[in-house]
Amino acid sequence: MPADATRLLTLRPEGLYCPEGDFHIDPTRPVARALITHGHADHARAGHGAVLASAQTLDIMAIRYGEGFAGTRQVAEGTVTLGGVEVRFHPAGHVLGSCQIEVRAGGVNAVVSGDYSRVPNPACAPFEPVPCDLFVTEATFALPVFHHPPPGEEIARLLASVQAFPERAHLIGAYALGKAQRVIMLLRQAGHDAPIYIHGALQRLCDYHLEQGIPLGDLRPATMDKAEAKALRGAVVIAPPSAFASPWVQRFADPVIAFASGWMQIRARARQRGVELPLVISDHVDWPDLTRTLRELNPGEFWITHGRDDALMRWADLEQRRAKPLHLVGYEDEVE
Q1: What is the pTM of this model?
Q2: Which residue among 23, 63, 248, 336 has the highest number of C-beta atoms inside a 10 angstrom radius?
Q3: What residue range is the signal peptide (predicted)?
Q4: Lowest model confidence (mean pLDDT) among 35-49, 180-194, 213-227
Q5: Mean pLDDT, residues 58-70
Q6: Domain ranges of the chain
């Protein structure tokens, strides 16, 4: 790798910083200028002086934080020049509006991937491989044990359970941005045309996906009283994980508790959460896709933001690849 490629990015207490362009990427504290990869709260925070992001990410931040979430905001379109740096946004395949951020100057480039997935996601644009000299990656599921099954197989297990237990509602824990809409779309692709009931915390973001032309089908509020909830036998109900620790869940009579997450591959986690039907559905790369991406892009060096960097550093050593863990504080593993 050219010696000056790593000069494009450095690490500050606020997070990744580009000195030549004078901006941060996904900073964990308010800064003067922030470039945001996607709308999850561990990457997109309020209070920055200026924000540059995809139009959908800006909309999602406004939904979550209010219209005044930043001093100014700019939609990332084409090439944007900041200082002496060219910046381009490329799809990341993670959630609606998610992007990788490419930074280019002096004939070299770096790509900050944010969170990303190589598995087709009907709720967002697919990951776009961008050749680069420096690649900044997550490592949420960076252990060889994490080999996620095809999402369609997990949805088939869900629908088989719905058919086997028609007298019980199926309550699915799914995060409000991305996972909930993905589960809904996967159900629709599998031919499940029945109404799907959603917790109130999911309503606005589901409405936004509908506004963006993503066909989620017949969605109905799961805000009924206890008597009405008991009538939802055989229905699919989606709620954020926090709802399962609230009185809301008690209105359902003997529901099947499910949870959609890459972590459900670890059965002990499912048991700890009282999950009867673990659904291994992730919006992050698993071990095979993570290592395949690194081999495909073949950057001169890669940096690891968070996750299981120990295993990935060992892999890099065996592959004779240059790598560095950043130990970024403030990013979470598949949560909002």
Answers
A1: 0.94
A2: 23
A3: none
A4: 213-227
A5: 97
A6: 5-145+284-325, 151-279
